[in-house]
Structures are given as C-alpha cells and as structure tokens.
Design a protein that fits this description.
With 93 residues, this protein is mainly β. The protein is elongated.
Length: 93
C-alpha cells in the first residue's frame, strides 16, 4: 500500500511545477542474522519526493525536467539504507 500526495502549482500561462510525495507501507520476509527464519516484517519503506517543472508549448507539445529524491527512511530491513536521486527529462507530443 502507498500513501501518495500530488500538487500542482501554476506559475504563469504555460508554466507549472508538479510535486509528488510517496510513502510506501511494506511487508517483507528477508532472511538475515536478525531474522533467520524469514518471518514477515511490516513497516514504512523509503519515501520519495518528486518535483518537475513543465512548460506547455502549445495544445500538443510540452517539455519538462525534474528529479526524484529518495532518502533512507525505511531503515535497514524495509529500505535501501542509502540516499538516491534520479533526474528526469520528458517531451510530450
């Protein structure tokens, strides 16, 4: 299950900033020294935050760029344990 929030900020005609935040709720059964039997563990995974700046050129064309930031919020078992950032570029026709 994932808790998600989306928000759009319109700056000027044809310019917008899109924001998204996700908070996943997970169930995993990892085998480790702390969990040798592989019992299911439940909790919050790594949250992520996204932002994208989009320019609508006309009714058909748009272009934008942004990034997704994932901090290590899920801990060692349910998350990756590291910071991640992923840039993105998109064109719509």
């Amino acid at each position: 299950m994932k808790l998600r929030a989306d928000y759009r900020i319109d700056f000027a005609p044809q310019w917008a900033l899109g924001l998204r935040a996700d908070l996943p709720f997970l169930g995993k059964n990892p085998i480790s020294s702390d969990n040798p039997d592989g019992n299911y563990l439940y909790g919050v995974g790594d949250a992520d935050i996204q932002a994208a700046l989009v320019h609508e050129l006309d009714a058909r064309w748009a272009a934008g760029f942004g990034a997704r930031l994932t901090p290590p919020t899920g801990g060692d078992v349910l998350g990756t344990g590291r910071w991640q950032i992923m840039p993105g570029v998109a064109v719509r026709s």
